[in-house]
Ribosomal RNA small subunit methyltransferase E
Amino acid sequence: MQQYFIKGPFQNPIVIDDKETLKHMFQVMRLTDGEQLHLVFEDGMKRLAVVSDSAAHAFTILEDLDQNVELPVQVTIASGFPKGDKLELVTQKATELGAHAIWAFPADWSVAKWDGKKLVKKQEKLEKIAQGAAEQSKRNLIPAIQLFEQKAAFLKTLSDFDQVFVAYEESAKVGEQATLAKGLKACQAGDKILFIFGPEGGLSPQEIQNFETAGAQLAGLGPRIMRTETAPLYALSAVSYALELDK
């Protein structure tokens, strides 16, 4: 069944006026009067709705649905600015895997250099990708996208999290495999977890020192060295296995 995220508070009945949403509903998917679909409002509740008047873009809510597919913890993915369209890929796939938020910051060894204007356009593009992926994967929320222009502002957020893991290549090289597993075992429902990933060139020694000073844990993600766009997907999969499947 089709699902759409609706901006604004819950209303019943509701008239939708978002042009892109309407285009997808009535031109791409060809919804007609009487067809049912799922609408998700800003409260995260999925609701069964029916098209009551396609010409007026009006919908009637039939019932609330007890469907919550969110991870039991809030996982934020933070990547050093990567090259090309890698962040688009991470955003799409991390959304499908349950990320609560997707961030990026200017790492010391980031090749990509994004100024204020480019950051705004990039964020708008990523928000659309996240919304599409959230609808496809039947999420209850759309991950929040935030691109930091200054790394100092990103560092200040680390204290907001219950656990912070830094995916560190050198930890993987020396065979460190326990930190992530132990940390996930200690997680409780509702915890806020931050995963930090470097860009293609990795994280600098100064960044590692800053992260550790802020309370982050250095973690290897298995014995293989992964690309910057692969590591976040591994981490989210590990969280899902540990907290959703391995019970």
Observations:
- The first helix runs from residue 19 to 28.
